[in-house]
Amino acid sequence: MRRPNIILIVSDDHGYADRGHLGIHADVRTPALDRLAAEGVSCDQAYVSAPICSPSRSGIITGRHQARWGVHWFDDAAFAPPDIPTLAEDLRAQGYDTAYLGKVHYGKDKPGDRACPNRHGFDESYYGLAALSMGRLNYMRRSKTAVSEYGDDAASRMGVQPFLEGDTEVDGEGFLTAELGDRARDFVGRKTAQQRPYFLMLAFNSVHNFCWQLPDEELEKRGLPKHPDWNPDVSDYVDWYDGAISPNLDNGRAYYLAQLELMDAEIGKLLSLLDKTGTAGETLVVYTTDNGGSTCNYGDNTPLRGTKYTLFDGGIRVPLIARWPGGRLPAGYTALTPASLLDLAPTLLAAAGAPSGDHDGHNLLPGWTSAGEDGGRVLHWDCGFQWAVREGDLKLLWVEPGSPYAEAIRQVEHTDPGSGIYLFDLAADPGEISNLAAQRPADVSRLTQLHEAWKASCG
Description:
alpha/beta; 19 strands; globular; Arylsulfatase, C-terminal domain; four-stranded antiparallel β-sheet; Alkaline Phosphatase, subunit A; 14 helices; about 30% helix
């Protein structure tokens, strides 16, 4: 069997409910994602390893839980050490040509670090270091000219720095989502012509705030006002930021949906290219996002409780769709048992016919063909001030009462991570409404011990 091409698409802060094929919101238009779901496998209970981007992305690229190298939250986030190989390094060792396009945010990343894609297995790269700009990239501007116009303070907050190709700064102006789509199609077209197997990781900035950064023609077409990026008259950044996110941003949900629709359109163009070149059956396409939908940018996680930053399911349960036509994966199948994005590395390596390696994740391919789903899966999360464990349908969640981290999330991000101990039966209560901790102390004790043992195993 010919080794498949692999395209892994990772978006940013995509709300669980915001997919057209779910039918939850009539104003959500995602025909490309809907097509992937109709022609592939949707994982109904897929989880990230952290409710924020940096730790989660570290887990995705390695298939190892980031707690193994001491990562829990933003303040200790870091890329995996050199002795832990990345998915790109493992696939390149199997003869794959590799490319990374888009957002990079593994921790306090700087040019030349191992966190840069060209330093951990990607032959080609075009990327923005979001760590240089408070975790975001500007959708419209990425140049030295923009840095000069914004001024150093605003530039460092608004993400207008030039992108990098390898180690070289590259100025760019124009809509980032379209730029990433163009470059993705160029890479796929070249490798198809060369008849080379490839691994493309396409990391969109969409739909991270600030979603009002849209092309003028898109704003006009949608009847949306142009919103200023930065108000220099507001001296306190947090005050300005609070006025630029939910619940204070007029048309916020419309901006978000526009960004989602335009990202989906780029995914659709990529699928059309696979059709045109006759390589759709030779290509495994996977779509997911880095954490739950965010209150800040009007993402919606219905029917789940919680959002980004929290360990309620709304913060950690995410879309995961995989398509591999030609009988490799079933069409229109929904996998109902829990999966982790730590599973992506061993799963994609298995699809490539490569050794599975040393991972914390599982190969999902048996479950994706309905032959081997694991209903007793145990998953762990550890953010320091909050942790959770899921065993089967039971989920135990603890948030440190009075934690300054939790209070900052409430004040700045407008979401509540909770406080104290929670026990939920997710089969009976997927919205995590009924806290069973007081009624079932034996389960609380058992799951706590299970989690403590896992933490000890991480070192």
